[in-house]
Amino acid sequence: MTDNNLLPISEDDSQIAKAIEQAHLPSLIAALVHVTGDASLVKGDIKPVYDFFGDGQGGLTDEQRARTKALALEAIKAYRDRGHTLPPAPDKATVRALMNFVSGADIPEGYIPFLVEEIALEGGDPKEPRFAPSISDTQRKNFHVLIVGAGMSGMLAAIRLKQAGISFSVVEKNADVGGTWLENTYPGCRVDNPNHMYSYSFEPFHDWPQHFSTQPVLISYFRRVAEKYGLKKFVRFETEMVEARFDEVRSLWRAKLRTKDGREESVEANAVVTAVGQLNRPKLPDIKGIEKFKGVAFHSARWNHDAELKGKRIAVIGTGASAFQFVPEIAPEAKELLVFQRTPPWLGATPNYHEDVAEGKKWLLKHVPFYAKWYRFWLFWMLTDGLYPFVQADPGWNGPSTAISATNQGLRDILVQYTTAQIANDDALAKAAIPDYPVGGKRSVRDNGVWLAALQRPNVKVVTQPIREITEDAVVTADGAVRKVDVLIYGTGFYASNFLEPMTFKGRGGVDLHEQWAGDARAYLGMTIPNFPNLFVMYGPNTNIVVNGSIIFFSECETRYILGAIELLLKTGSSEIEVKKDVHDAFNEKVDAQNARMAWGVPQVTSWYKNQKGRVSQNWPFPLIDYWKATLAPDPGDFILRKKKETVVAAE
Ligand code: NAP
């Protein structure tokens, strides 16, 4: 067992001691087991607890913290002085004990391989594709994949196909890689998953300047990764795929591409992978008169950086994750800021949301073997399946409909207290700030107090009256109040459930994908669709998560599965792989049944997770481990594999 890319320690004892002051101690103790070989460190009186709302140090007492730091100093000094050698790796039972220790939970046995892989505990890049050697280079080069989109998912697909030696090309509508992190440049835009988890598992970055980095930092990460893997030369930028038709005779997709200047071109591919995200077609609200407004108006995802906001009367419509981030940024410069709120978000206390990562912590991540891995592990468990029970409905729950179980009610109580404690002398705001839907019904936002502080500024007002219409220069609410504004900013989200629009896909027998879906997109494991052989969707239907996890995790699972499907094609000499309809339908039934039992699926919640038919078409309703297991490799029994039809060459 090794740890990759560690730097040797040249710092003196006092510098090491200073860094240790900023450690996440449960992760550091686990790392020390690797450094010393002494598993008794996690068998004594120090037992971190799952402390989602604590300071993250597992509830350790002051004495335990001091003891841990002293132990760590001695162990790291010894590791430095002996020339950075490590004792034999801990055995499986110890790894299991370390997981329980760091998480403060009793992690079920089945999770161990999943988590070991996620943090690459055994070194290397465990998710790197390893195709059967029997698949020749020629086979790989002759199989061409067209990837649509060069955001986080498309880049990942490109990296993995490149590693597998499969031919591929990418089309991207923007002029650069990065997808959502390129398009969203609104003030305050930042990731709301901690970066030490929100990064590719095989491309950890130990120098994240903040725990939740800003958009410019994220886009540079994705650009760096694109550069490292030489992706840009495979991408045709400012080019959209507008249509793809499946040619059943040749088992190929024929795609029509359109460049920004309107030129069209046809290309062929054995498979198409769409990686177009769920959240990149901005949605303007369906409000009467919206087109009449004569002032400056724009959507958060198309931020108008030329618009003058200083001294202006600004209206923001929406209080979702985007508005939550930009309202506190623009509030100080507005003359007057009206925040039109239909539904408040749940605020999750995150004191370090805007904080820099301490230099000492960065040092530990880069120098102490296995510290970065255990830190990622802790975040991963804490923020993924560890949270799942809080958002699962109890069928026997007979409390108010603002919660779905006793655990969910407990969480609600904590969050209500946290929110109201931030509001002084404003009963209307105190009432407006508390959601009437269960925690987990919508994506909660990470809060360090700046949101409610902004809403309590003298120049800011929250308007909860429904909007009746927009006029040339005002927003009119249902109570008849006319509020004149100079600037209108829409934080109103995206056409999330209109998957793969506006592209056209014609599958077997000329079936149109959007007609088949009829406004209710479904896929098997979010990726494959009956009648559409060799089409793979990334971040497709039912692969979003609300509270538990990062989309990068899902994309990594999807990429492995898609490459597995390509491997299956090449290994079996088949040219088409298509999911069986009964497999697809049975899967969707299970998904629907479970979504109905989750906080976001209950009838009292409306959100972008539900499509026009009221079905939760966005979210994965099971624990992450279930997606991981289901996507390790495609089960050939789930698919129809076809060989290429004999082509009849007409006699001349
Ligand atoms: P959103 O969550 O869909 O929020 C849209 C907001 O607009 C909601 O408050 C909605 O109210 C309101 N709205 C829509 N139509 C309206 C109307 N006609 N009148 C009044 N209000 C209206 O959109 P978003 O904030 O852009 O976020 C979308 C998703 O992007 C998030 O859930 C998250 O997954 C992702 N995101 C992530 C980050 C991050 O990682 N930091 C940042 C931003 C976004 P209702 O709730 O009542 O519908």
Jot down its keywords:
globular; binds NADP nicotinamide-adenine-dinucleotide phosphate; disordered C terminus; 5-stranded parallel sheet; 14% strand; FAD/NAD(P)-binding domain; 19 helices; 652 residues; 31% helix; alpha/beta; 3 domains
Structural description of this entry:
With 652 residues, this protein is an alpha/beta fold. It has three domains: 13-127 and 361-382, no CATH class; 137-281 and 496-649, FAD/NAD(P)-binding domain; 290-353 and 390-490, FAD/NAD(P)-binding domain, CATH 3.50.50. Helix content is 31%, strand content 14%. It contains 19 helices and 21 strands. The protein has helices at 13-20, 25-36, 62-81, 92-103, 111-118, 137-142, 152-164, 180-183, 215-228, 321-330, 359-367, 371-383, 406-420, 427-432, 450-455, 513-517, 551-572, 581-595, 624-630; strands at residues 144-148, 167-171, 235-236, 239-247, 252-259, 264-269, 271-274, 296-299, 313-317, 336-340, 347-349, 445-447, 460-463, 467-470, 474-477, 482-484, 487-490, 504-506, 535-537, 576-579, 639-642. Strands 3-2-1-7-19 form a five-stranded parallel sheet. A five-stranded parallel sheet has the order 8-17-9-10-13, with no helix packed on it. Strands 6-5-4-18 form a four-stranded mixed sheet, with no helix packed on it. β5 (252-259) and β6 form a beta hairpin. α2 crosses α12 (371-383). The longest helix is centred in the C-terminal third of the chain and has 22 residues, at 551-572. The chain is globular, with a radius of gyration of 26 Å. NADP nicotinamide-adenine-dinucleotide phosphate binds next to α10.
